[in-house]
């Protein structure tokens, strides 16, 4: 596999390139974990775990995005992005997620909380797929040895698209779990608490 990052010539440059390689490796691992988790959720094998697994997957990948968003802009060596070929077909993933989340998929959202707080709608299945698409695209660069380009893509797409979608979906999943667990019948909760305290 080719290595896009040049060999360092000085101590500072060595540290910088080493940090970028480590960040790229960590980001690739987080991307793979997210894709595997969302694919597992979409399979419908364990629908009861869909919401908590989605919450965990989004929380973890948003940490990756936050690291990329917090550092200076990554600038690839080439002026134009290398075409990695056709994107992975993710429509089946979106459809499976939509079917799995039927009845809770759509939610209220705002266009932009800073510049355009107009009400709009969002979709959990679409959000999860948008994140998957962006991460998969960057992984193709990474796996073909274009480490700097992978970092650039993940950072750019985090700031421009998938970070917002992931954050919105995370908030909705957290709210859904809160309603499921806190909106339970008060008598049933009290009985469960009594049983737990008096075995």
Model description:
With 199 residues, the chain is mostly helical. It has six helices and two strands, in the order H-H-H-E-E-H-H-H. A two-stranded antiparallel sheet has the order 1-2. A hairpin with a 3-residue loop joins strand 1 and strand 2 (116-123). Helix 1 (11-42) runs antiparallel to helix 2 (50-70) and helix 4 packs antiparallel against helix 5 (147-182). The radius of gyration is 20 Å and the shape is elongated. It starts with 10 loop residues before the first helix and ends with a helix. The model has no long low-confidence stretch (mean pLDDT 86).
Strand content: 5-15%
Averaged pLDDT: 86
Instruction: List unreliable stretches of 5+ residues.
Output: none
Which descriptor suits the 3D outline? elongated
Largest sheet: 2 strands, antiparallel
Structural class, by secondary structure, is mainly alpha
Task: Give the topology string: H per helix, E per strand.
Answer: HHHEEHHH
Number of H/I helices: 6
- Whole-Å distance between the termini? 60 Å
**Rg value:** 20 Å
Count of β-strands: 2
Helix amount, in percent? Answer: 55-70%
* Strand order across the largest sheet: 1-2
Descriptive key words:
single chain; 199 residues; mainly alpha; elongated
What's the layout of helices and strands?
Blueprint: H1 11-42, H2 50-70, H3 91-100, E1 106-112, E2 116-123, H4 124-143, H5 147-182, H6 186-197
Antiparallel strand pairs: 1-2
Helix pairs in contact: 1-2, 1-3, 1-4, 1-5, 2-5, 3-4, 4-5
